Amino acid sequence: VTLLDLALLCLRLGFLSFGGGVATLAEMQHVVVDVHGAMTAADFGHAFGLGQATPGPGVLYLVPLGVMVSGPAGGAVALVAFVLPPLVLAAIVVRVWDRFADSPWTVAANRTLAPLSIGLIAGGLRTIAAPLVGDPLALVGVLVALVALLRLRLSPPIVVVSAGIVWLLAST
Amino acid sequence: VTSSLTPGPEMSGGPLRALWAFLWIGLTSLGAGRQAYLHRTFVDGGWIPEQVFLSDYAKSTVLPGASFVNLTFLCGLRIGGFPTAIIGTILVFLPGTVAIVAATIVLSAPDPRVDGLLHGILVGAVAVFALMLIRLRSAAMTSSSARLLALTAFAMTIAAVPLVVIVVVIGGVGLYWYRPRRDAAP
Fold first, then answer.
1. What angle do CA B98, A141, A131 make, to 5 degrees?
2. Interface of A with B in 17-76 (CB under 8 A)
3. CA spacing 20 to 30 A to A85: which of A9, A46, A63, B186?
4. pLDDT one digit per residue (tens) for chain B, 186 residues
5. Which of A55, A101, A162, A145 lies closest to B51 in space, CA to CA?
């Protein structure tokens, strides 16, 4: 994948990421894995996992993804192309937003975007979890991690890093 | 925008103090619900009024892009205008970027232990993702029409329908569905 292709992909998906960066995971994986064959589905999942294990915005998963598909410069290109244009839009929109905050059409847009985002995020979860299907141990690990998050209220990065350490120890 | 962009009295430390706060958030904001770090720092710290923050939170989730990044940018805009918004957003990215670049370099070597580590990280990340979906679902799926729109969007992703088509179709149907009606109660 050339840097220009990567930039255009991230630019397009950045503008379509209603509900956050994860809403575009399914489309991102479809393009880089299925269409371009630039990385495997497992590598895509690994890149996303690294983004969850590091501090700061979750969209940082684009750095390892960009490096994997387009080389060292790909990380910076992917991140900037995805993040910057929506920020410019935000800067513009915020100046007129308050004027229309109580408009019935604004309310209608909010009511529409919430389920749209959830549908896209569910699609992203299916995409990310795909490499684990057929691996019963991994699925048990997901359930255990989910219980740790829900019941023990552990911090997500602690759960992510702990799961990594468990699988690291198991592989040695 | 409005007078809420004017720095509050608590900003006695000046722009450097604000930028340090952004860097600290970038270093310590981990996991889902990162927006809570912004709230704790800038609202509880007296930089941004609660109502302004909540309004910006709504904007950050509705606008395209990473919602945490959008909200970070809007907080910077409220505190010190565009320079603070731009530099603050960069500073929020900085620690994680350094960490993930280092991890990408270190973990790029072919090694079964690295594969094991990354596979485990993916297991944990899927759980975090599922947790986020559970929380969002309980907050937003309050009507049968919302559930139908979400399920349709999900089905379209499974069918590999291009994202732009999904956004246009579901967005159009939703806007028609929830359109203002003349007979609605005032």
1. 70
2. 17-22, 24, 26-27, 30, 34, 42, 45-46, 48-61, 63-64, 67, 75
3. A46
4. 333 444 444 444 567 888 999 999 998 876 556 777 788 888 888 888 887 887 787 778 778 888 889 999 999 998 988 899 999 999 999 999 999 998 888 877 777 888 888 888 889 888 888 887 887 776 667 788 989 999 999 999 889 888 888 889 998 999 999 998 876 554
5. A101
Which of B34, B100, B120 comes nearest A168 by C-beta?
B120
Cα separation of B53 and B75, whole Å?
8
**CB within 8 Å of chain A, chain B residues 54-113:** 55-56, 58-70, 72-74, 77, 82, 85, 89, 92-97, 99-101, 103-104, 107, 112-113
So what's the ipTM on this one? 0.76
Cα–Cα distance for residue pair B94/B47, rounded to 1 Å: 22
Q: How many CB atoms lie within 10 A of CB A86?
A: 25
Q: How far is A25 from chain B (nearest CA, A)?
A: 10
CA dihedral sign, ordered B161, B164, B165, B170: positive
Residue of A155, B27, B42 whose CA lies nearest to A163: A155
Rounded distance between C-alpha atoms, residue B163 and residue B171, angstroms: 12
Neighbours of B49 (CB within 10 A): 14
Q: Do residues B59 and A94 make contact, with C-beta atoms less than 8 angstroms apart?
A: yes
How distant is the alpha carbon of residue A41 from its chain centre?
Answer: 14
A5 is written with which tokens?
Answer: 């292709």
Total-model pTM: 0.77
Name which of A62, A56, A7, A75 is nearest A29 in CA terms: A62
